[in-house]
Amino acid sequence: SPLSLFISNFFSDPPQTASVSLIPPGEVLEGSSVTLTCSSDANPAASYTWFTDDQNHLNAVNIYHLPSINRNDSGIYVCKSENKHGWINSSVHIDVLSSGEWIKSCRIKGLI
């Protein structure tokens, strides 16, 4: 009916303000496990796709896990949040450090 179509469209939104989180946050020690999470407000619910900054497709879920990250994994990771009304991208930079760089960084920050 026209009324149900109006109500459906009225309460529908493209994804808004997609956000990404990196666990653990900040610089990452080579060999560590890293989890990237993407979320957004959307109606209907959004689908998510992870890409690297060179547009290499990684995964089509909101959580992307790297069980043992290495130096080659450093870079920008982009999450695309999308539903039938639109899409939005959000990104996070991962800086993977060797153990020597990690110790130096911790000393500079006064952590050790």
UniProtKB/TrEMBL annotation:
InterPro entries in the record: Ig-like_dom, Ig-like_dom_sf, Ig-like_fold, Ig_sub, Ig_sub2
Pfam hit, one: Ig_2
Ig-like domain: residues covered: 15-95
Coiled coil: none
SMART domains referenced in this protein's UniProt entry, alphabetically: IG, IGc2
PANTHER family associated with the record: B-CELL RECEPTOR CD22-RELATED, VASCULAR CELL ADHESION MOLECULE 1
Name the UniProt record assigns to this protein: Ig-like domain-containing protein
Taxonomic lineage: Eukaryota, Metazoa, Chordata, Craniata, Vertebrata
